[in-house]
Q: What sequence folds into this?
């Protein structure tokens, strides 16, 4: 009987294993996410967990300490808390930015250690191994201490689990070290299971230090500490009294105290004595409003939930979001780079408001309250080009809330955002991109926001000639049609203003404001005055209208400062007039000259996949009849060359998802070629079938399908919409979303 | 009719004026308080308002800036926020210590300015004039801005009133500058009428930096600011990034923001635009527990009360306290120095608990709660000698709460206090003085505390040979009878332990613990082993028991470090065996030799009125029959020489009221000559009549009267108690408090 039963159990077991394996093998979109992608080559992504558009996130922090040079945070301009090839880990930061170009956040560093408490991160740091990075989960072994760290996160709470060996174990919370260049923190151990505090961050891109702001937190520990304490390394005191201060400038250990401690270099330690292997979970709630809100975020979002529960919930949330696009065909790596890119587009803009709806208004003069989601981290110079277009198509409710957030900023501040970061306006980069995003959103039929107010805000930015923080040099621009070399990056900035003006003219037209529509349409073409037909390039002019001399079109590659252009040179910016490509063609002398000049950028290696001004260039061959195959070839080549399933698998800074959005679109076979205008251009999809679920709140169709047929390596022969030939490489947003199937046939 | 009425009004007016004048001329005890006394000559008193035993106080702050050198806080060991002869005022500090010997507190600096906001105190500071200092009130003109400042305080709230001229006016709250050497603060403007924050203080006497602790505050303004902001001057950033930080190390102005700012050098400004002369009141509530408690202290103690109301209430409180001793006869100056001294004895120990009873326990591991008053600032090495004896006699309820507070500290910390300051144990000075104070209190009949626990605590301090923070060197002391030169100040410390042991033996006896009584009595005489009868002085011994060589008895005057003694030399300490003066006499060879040696101290200018070890010396002539007149002469001479109605009117540090208590007793004609033993010695009173009201909760008599008769300049001829000759210059506490009249007849 025993034997008989054993057989039955064995059989059941086999069936169960088959079931489990089949579940595992039916990979969900979230299972393809590989957060290690973009963690090298300055991608500036981080491998740790975050919920979709989460406020909190956890990143391993390995950019401090000489062991990590040259990719060490104080040795160069380094904008990420983690670099894949670095070896020296000093903790796990609880708030992080993904894919940005300036060092910021990367603070509130949690670190497990064993043995005596050591508070100097250069001494307590460790090598690490066995990294596992997935959507909503990261784990790693901390070699020096034989501690395993596992991490997950809800929207506003990071959850860390440490498995300690027998003996003395410590959890350090270091508020001194951080990626940000700001200093200053406060900490208070509330009890042997709870810590509260704040850390100053800000001055993004070394700008606006007066806007530095606090991030508040509450940390709850699953096990009561046997001992706890706070440390502070004070600044050195000068003056004759220093002779009486044996402790001058030295770190202080303050045991078992619940007093508030402030300083630049402070932290706390929780210490345990374990008889056997034990785990400690630390849940850290974050808020940009107050410690009370951080505590509420923690309680309401996570409370007593187990690590696995939080992980499961956030994993499910990711899976739901990523499942909005289903892909069929394509290799595992293709799916991995695709879903990881989509994942990267769902990190920023992120949630700013607390669970109770509160958030700091722009300039922090007041605490606001929202019913929906208040979004933050608007790197609009990047994202106006494709990311928001992707949101409008796939996540229109999010895009609507992002537009509402931008309009709220105008209410609070008097201006639309330019590069908004946690309710500070960093004024990084140039141009007036919010108008483009809002117009684009509206013209795509997402209209549940106050468009009249938005329009008023756009006009203010476009027309106020004095004291206009959004559009410096506007007087020259309006009077002369271009910015002169008295301004920073005058050609680039003129182009940016043109693109914005074009978007405004489209919106004006839609709103029935014909005069404005005409006026802004005219303004949008003024870049033409900067076109030097001898060079077939755009070129800066000095104040008297003469060309700037001597002019080297190559100067400005690799982000060098140069006269004329911002983060780029004349080649890279030459085609950045997406709204007037036909006009540009005429300036250049027609299709052939245009095509030749475009090709030259690729041939001369001036093309920079990592920088926004030229990322639409490969698609521009679609404007030349008969040369569309060059768009297909270039796009495919760039995807293969720059986007890969490995740490260096992004071309450079992800720019809060802009590079990733480029990839998502490019692999789907469409691209929003004219920011502000609801139109896509078409290339060969990289999957057999792409199904985009549409949000019924905004769109009539359930979904749209993009299919490919024929030879995947061949040129596009025919494009069909609902079975009928399209006879163009362009399709309007309306036609796309009201269509059923877009079929691309290659031969 | 008009004229007739005018006459009536005139008459009424004259009557009123007469009434007012008579009210004014009938001066109350509080009217004699001159807080300017002790604000020079290192008296370390401050002239601003404080309530009796108040937590909050306001002092003009004039010890920063090169203008104030040499009495500038960073140029020397300076322990006071205000020096009378200094000229450059940089604000009004909201928490202050009175009469201590180390720089501490003197933080949260409020400063009115006009014109553009300037945040550098060296630039915004001003000369000042027209100081008025009274009990509970201080006013001054701030010359540079033509602003009048007036100040009063309740127990936990400082109230400032500024009268501004027309134009832009500012109220600065500077959390950077301070008397303390600690750094670090937090500030948050809550609204245009409220600020909250904290400031780190601690490391008193350059000790125990790890015990640095926060003082929390909430400031409420009577008028809403037109503009407000916060400033921060950050530490300078090092590293390659400094090249991109144009703002590196520079002060930042942050306008109209409600964010939390932390840093070493921070502050806030409230700005007004006034059309005419206007006043702004600022009420600042203090707490050592939390911002919430500071807010509650402010609301419950002061709330919306007018400046005048707060002043009147605190004035009344002072008057009630000071009226416990009524003096008749004596000059106005005599009354002034007397009541100011009594006022100084009622500042420390001061209240630590908040309005709701909460206070930080010792080491800040917990928030405690008290029903009565939790006292703090126990400078016991000073105050065990006379201040607590004065409290037991005149304010026994306060003394009882002080003893209870000390026993609470033992509960929290495992040890009685030594030099406790806002729940940190600074371990400043030597000896084990709490035992003396508790025994003295109990033996005077104040017994509403847990004496058994107190006794247990005393024994722990007296007997625990290892890891005893109160009595380092105890093993040597117990085994050899003295500390050897391996310890700091071995002779002084032996003497201190002897005095404590004597007090313990007295209490043991009273509690029926005969063996302990005997043991500690024996221990209390061990100083005799340090008596070098060749020198007639106490002298240090080295570890093998030999005398320390070479020995210079003069070394150690003026607070020089020396082998053997703490803050003094062999001469100054020679008579500090108050419990065994008869034994000392025998050692010296009898009355004559004793008297000669005592006289030598005065003749050789070794006597230091400003230092505790020898302040009882003038009274020691009472131990030599026929030489009591020398006590009378010396006491009177010292009172006249060192205690005067002027800024330099204290001999040196008031030592939290110890010098003042000496004066109060000396002017009343009695002195508690043996700390721990309920006995007074008698000298000639300096008033015709002194009436001490006794607290019926502790004493049977309503009051005791000390009268003088005959020639005030003559020697004492007869002393009578209740009309009967006393025939001794000593009187027990029981006889005094149960008597009715002590009459001293001089001829």
A:
């Amino acid at each position: 009987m025993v034997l008989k039963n054993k057989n039955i159990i064995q059989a059941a077991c086999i069936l169960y294993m088959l079931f489990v394996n089949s579940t595992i093998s039916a990979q969900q979109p979230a299972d393809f996410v590989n957060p290690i992608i973009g963690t090298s080559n300055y991608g500036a992504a981080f491998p740790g967990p975050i919920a979709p558009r989460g406020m909190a996130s956890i990143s391993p922090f390995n950019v401090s300490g000489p062991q990590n040079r040259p990719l060490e945070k104080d040795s160069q301009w380094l904008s990420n808390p983690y670099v894949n090839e670095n070896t020296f880990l000093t903790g796990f930061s609880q708030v992080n930015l993904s894919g940005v170009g300036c060092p910021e956040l990367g603070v509130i560093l949690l670190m497990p250690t064993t043995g005596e408490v050591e508070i100097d991160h250069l001494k307590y740091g460790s090598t690490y191994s066995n990294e596992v990075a997935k959507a909503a989960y990261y784990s790693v072994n901390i070699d020096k201490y034989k501690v395993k760290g596992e991490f997950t996160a809800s929207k506003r709470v990071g959850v860390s689990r440490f498995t300690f060996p027998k003996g003395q174990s410590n959890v350090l919370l270091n508020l001194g070290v951080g990626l940000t260049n700001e200093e200053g923190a406060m900490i208070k151990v509330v009890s042997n299971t709870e810590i509260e505090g704040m850390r100053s961050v800000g001055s993004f891109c070394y700008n606006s230090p007066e806007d530095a702001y606090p991030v508040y937190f509450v940390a709850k520990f699953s096990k009561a500490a046997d001992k706890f304490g706070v440390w502070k390394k004070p600044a050195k005191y000068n003056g004759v009294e220093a002779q009486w201060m044996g402790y001058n400038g030295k770190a202080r250990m303050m045991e078992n105290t619940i007093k508030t401690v402030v300083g630049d270099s402070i932290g706390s330690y929780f210490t345990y004595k374990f008889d056997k292997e034990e785990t400690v979970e630390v849940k850290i709630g974050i808020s940009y409003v107050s410690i009370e809100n951080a505590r509420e975020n923690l309680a309401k979002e996570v409370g007593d939930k187990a690590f696995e529960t939080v992980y499961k919930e956030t994993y499910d949330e990711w899976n739901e979001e990523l499942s909005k696009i289903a892909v069929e065909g394509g290799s595992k790596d293709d799916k991995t780079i695709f879903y990881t890119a989509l994942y990267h587009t769902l990190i920023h803009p992120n949630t700013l408001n607390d669970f109770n709806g509160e958030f700091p208004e722009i300039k922090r003069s007041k605490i606001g309250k929202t019913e929906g989601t208040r979004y933050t981290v608007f790197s609009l110079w990047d994202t106006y080009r494709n990311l928001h277009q992707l949101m409008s198509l796939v996540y229109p409710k999010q895009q609507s809330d992002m537009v509402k957030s931008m309009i709220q900023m105008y209410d609070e501040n008097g201006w639309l955002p330019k590069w908004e970061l946690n309710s500070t306006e960093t004024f990084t980069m140039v141009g007036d991109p919010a108008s483009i995003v809002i117009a684009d959103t509206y013209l795509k039929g997402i209209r549940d926001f106050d468009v009249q107010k938005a329009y008023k805000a756009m006009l203010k930015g476009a027309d106020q000639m004095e004291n206009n923080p959004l559009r410096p040099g506007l007087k020259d621009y309006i009077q002369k049609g271009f910015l002169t070399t008295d301004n920073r990056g005058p050609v680039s900035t003129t182009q940016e203003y043109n693109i914005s003006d074009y978007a405004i003219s489209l919106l004006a037209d839609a709103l029935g404001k014909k005069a404005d529509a005409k006026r802004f349409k005219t303004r949008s073409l003024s870049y033409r005055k900067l076109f030097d037909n001898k060079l077939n390039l755009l070129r800066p002019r000095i104040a008297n209208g003469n060309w700037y001399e001597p002019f080297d079109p190559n100067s400005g590659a690799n982000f060098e400062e140069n006269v004329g252009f911002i983060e780029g040179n004349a080649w890279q910016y030459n085609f950045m007039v997406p709204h007037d490509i036909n006009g540009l063609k005429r300036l250049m002398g027609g299709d052939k000259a245009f095509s030749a000049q475009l090709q030259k950028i690729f041939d001369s290696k001036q093309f920079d996949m990592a920088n926004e001004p030229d990322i639409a260039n490969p698609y521009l061959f679609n404007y030349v009849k008969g040369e569309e195959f060059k768009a297909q070839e270039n796009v495919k080549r760039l995807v293969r060359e720059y986007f890969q399933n490995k740490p260096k698998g992004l071309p450079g800074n992800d720019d809060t998802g802009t590079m990733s959005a480029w990839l998502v679109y490019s692999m789907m076979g469409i691209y929003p070629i004219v920011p502000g205008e609801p139109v896509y251009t078409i290339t060969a999809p990289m999957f057999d079938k792409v199904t985009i679920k549409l949000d019924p709140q905004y769109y009539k169709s359930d979904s749209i399908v993009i299919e490919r047929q024929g030879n995947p390596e061949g040129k596009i022969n025919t494009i069909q919409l609902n079975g009928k030939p399209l006879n163009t490489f362009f399709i309007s947003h309306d036609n796309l979303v009201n269509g059923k199937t877009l079929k691309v046939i290659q031969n």
In short: Chain A has 19 helices and 34 strands. The domain at 324-467+478-746 of chain A is CATH 3.30.2080.10 (GH92 mannosidase fold). Chain A has two domains: 30-167+177-183+191-225+281-320, 324-467+478-746. The radius of gyration of chain A is 27 Å.
